[in-house]
Known about the structure:
The complex is a heterodimer.
Chain A lengths: L26 E2 L10 E3 L2 E5 L4 E5 L4 E7 L5 E8 L2 E9 L9 E8 L15 E6 L11 E4 L6 E5 L5 E7 L13 E5 L2 E8 L2 E8 L11 E7 L20 E4 L5 E13 L2 E11 L5 E12 L2 E4 L6 E7 L5 E4 L123 H4 L8 E6 L9 E5 L5 E2 L2 E2 L1 E5 L5 E4 L5 E4 L10 E5 L5 E5 L10 E4 L5 E4 L10 E5 L8
Parallel strand pairs in A: 1-5
Antiparallel strand pairs in A: 2-3, 3-4, 4-5, 6-7, 7-8, 8-9, 10-11, 11-12, 12-13, 14-15, 15-16, 16-17, 18-19, 19-20, 20-21, 22-25, 22-35, 23-24, 24-30, 25-28, 26-27, 29-30, 31-32, 33-34
Chain B lengths: L4 H12 L31 E3 L15 E5 L2 E2 L10 H9 L16 E4 L2 E10 L6 H7 L7 E11 L3 E11 L2 E5 L2 E6 L10 E2 L3 E3 L2 E11 L5 E7 L10 E3 L3
Antiparallel strand pairs in B: 1-5, 2-5, 2-6, 3-6, 4-5, 6-12, 6-14, 7-10, 7-11, 7-13, 8-9, 8-12
Amino acid sequence: MKQYKNIIKGFGALVGIMLSQSAMAQIGAPFIHDPSTIVECDGKYYTFGTGGGGLISEDGWTWNSGAQRPGGGAAPDALKIGDRYLIAYSATGGGLGGGHAGRVLTMWNKTLDPESPDFKFTEAIEVAKSIQDEDCDAIDAGLLLDPTTGKLWLTYGTYFGHIRLVELDPKTGERVKGNKAKNVAIDCEASTMMYKDGWYYLLGTHGTCCDGGNSTYNIVCGRSKKVTGPFIDNVGRDMMEGGGRMVIAGSGRTWGAGHFGRYVVADGIEKMSLHWEADLDQGGRSVLAIRPIIWKNGWPIGGELFKEGTYEIESERRGYSLELVVDFVRMNRGGGMFGGGGFGGFGGAQRPANAQGGAQRPANAQGGQAPAGGFPGFGAGAPGAGAPQGAQRPANAQGAPGAGAPAGGMGGFGGFGGMGGFGGGAAGGQAQRPAQQAAPQAQPSQTLADVIQDWPKDEIRVRMADYMGRPHQRWTITAVPEAGGYLGGPYYKIIIAGTNRALAATADKDVTSVPRFTGAPEQLWRIDQCTDGTYRIMPKAVPGTDEELVLMSAGDCTPTLGKWDFSSDNCKWNFKDMSKDITVR
Amino acid sequence: MKLNKKALLAFAVASLCGMSAHAALGPGDGDKDDLTKENVQPTLADFFSPVSKNVAKPDAKGFIRRWLLLEPIDKPNRSNTVFTDSYIRENFGQQYFPGQFTDIPTDGKTERVGEQELKWHAFDATRFNVKLFRFASGLEKQVYGVLFWAVTIIDCPEDMPNVRLAVGSNSASMWWLNGEEAVILSGDRRMVVDDVMSGRLNLKKGKNVLRGAVINGPGMSDFCVRFVKENGEPVTNVSVTLSK
Lengths: 585, 244
């Protein structure tokens, strides 16, 4: 509701006291309302807000006031066209309870850097207006340069009536002569458009504005094959009927999502800018937010900022997990498939207790780690369920260790070429467990202390392999505040959980782990969620080169660094939260 | 209150031109492009026409356009955030005028609500949504801090079990079918097609009375109402009348 916009006029120019800020929010003083689409100019990022000012960031993560825009008014948008910047804004006092006579104005500048000698806005010109009582409120400008035609479009409007679309001249910023406005939506404000894969998307903000932590502001969209609409939502509703598919809404400690803007970082890496009406961690103030855009079935949705935690880092290529190159240390076998604790001896040294059939096992497979408590009657009688080759089992299969077999007692099974002989009699399985046997006990996960003493103390290379929840596969990822950031996130360190051993890029364009995190650029990682929901992992710097390289799979098990290619799964990763993986119930 | 002569003149012209016939149009059927009149003040005739003598049907998408609308009751609210469920029930549950939940008003009938003398108007909406804001502004009545009452009658050729009443309203509203509460829309809402659906209802053979109340503080009041079948298709094979 725009009647509150005067209240927050000048908001963007305020420099607030730094409050405690989590890694979930832009840092600095990112206080703004109605931010314009983020624009990059000479290596810095800019966004303008309601009032007269705006924010500047050198890295896309730390934002402070300093951007300058004359004219005051409400809710500007910004767009780079050629080597100039076009700003559209509204000179109005709009509001549902107040006046609705508004004017949308455009003006140009060669630079957005107020320190530049070239910083000078052209005189603003009117491109659209609303009179006091028509069904439109000419504020909240949104710009789209159609990549397919080169035409320039402007949407504007609020809850008071319609969102309207008009065409501007991309050379002058003026309204195209004779152009007639077209109503394209109702019941929203802060509209803008974007184009992707043959679709034009109209975005608008629904819900209640300007009510702090009670604001229900949320961003929705519809799409059309034509730039002029109709813009239809995911259930077939026209945005002229109030339709709209949710793009992003409040969550956690941030509430009231409004004023969408899109920024394409690279192929497959897109961000949205918006404001939260209230960030409860920053005094409930309105702040700038930058979130990944994920495209799901042709619809944009808000991704999440990467959350610190302990993860499996899994390749999209094969699903294998990034790990240190150290010996796999076996765990106690546990009950395995049949619950009795005697099965694990089948496995090769690198296999889990219930891995593939024994037919592929070497005859001398070690069973040394089998716990006491082998299955009673084990091996005597008919083959157990699932014994693929049990019928061919040699006669000496009988007499396998039974209950209380010492460790290694099942080793002799390895040569049987099958899982036969398990049955323990016709009934087989757990039916044979003595009534007095205790219920299965929780088995602890392997801990770092169990294995770290055998790890090399210096550099340890990394690879990918089956994820088994082992300490050399669990990575703790935390922000490094002093390292700055990038558009939408801080740099992170990626270390083996419980250690200071850090993932690092190398001068030969590979990755390794170094024994101690030092904060060096090659140990800092940028993590961007891709438009398909996977992640791009990218070192801040690679020693000896200025190339921008990303972590990628050279083979299923071999990580390296290479050029970003969104079309290749080699370049994509997933994070699986393993924070609970070490919990012993 | 002095009437807006210009609006009434346009309204009369539109009526003579036969705009009142239900053209079975919905959004997307061609009526929305006509709305884009830059820098022109809307008139009552842009949104409503007097009830025609034609038998009214829902439009192609099932939206009910023929209504009896009471001029807005003064109900000041500076913000729509107060429209909680309990607020809605309490404020819609009280009696503002006699026969509020039982009578079928007639066009031109007046009601005394406190100090206000309010008139019922029989209108056909020119669009799928009933633009109460323009109903009020076109009659030079207050547009903010208001409570509207609306009544219509659905005449069914047969029993229609398991239909739902689909409502969108700006802002909160409450609806009753044949005297029973059907659906409530609380909170600071915008009008969205099929925003809230009732539970499964039965439209009986013959006449079914549908009443609604819409409240707004600083918003642009309107509503859209239709019945939909179990499979989501709109109910269109009924008549809409304003007489019992």
